[in-house]
Design goal:
- Helix content is 69%, strand content 6%.
- The chain has 7 helices and 2 strands; from the N terminus they run αββαααααα.
Amino acid sequence: MKQIFVLFLVFFSGSICADNTIVAIVNQIPVTLNSIQINIKNSDSKDDQILVINNYIDNILQIQKAGELELNPNKRDIEKVLIDIAQNNELSLKELMDFKDFDYIEKEVYEKLSILNLQRFITKDLKVSKQQIIKVCSEKNLIK
């Protein structure tokens, strides 16, 4: 009986630890299996899982760089996007805020806006001629 109990504890504690397994450390920020679990579950192969982890790491680095350059969105920008999300889902902002996962939604908006601000900052001085656009975007070059 004790052996079965010990076996149960080993399997149970193993599943608890697996959720909190550190997959990577990015500039002193641990990436846990828990934080990427939803995306990993939707991955079919090991290559897809590695791609998910790499994308997550890229996002962390971009958000950190946006913070370093003080490109993080302000509260008003975040609120505008949250209002838009609420309206697109036929909700009021208050109803959206009442969701138990609202903090996750707000964090996601913050991160996406930070990355967008960084992209805009990087490309603000980029000059592309009309001929280059036509050449790159011609129908011959499109993947069907």
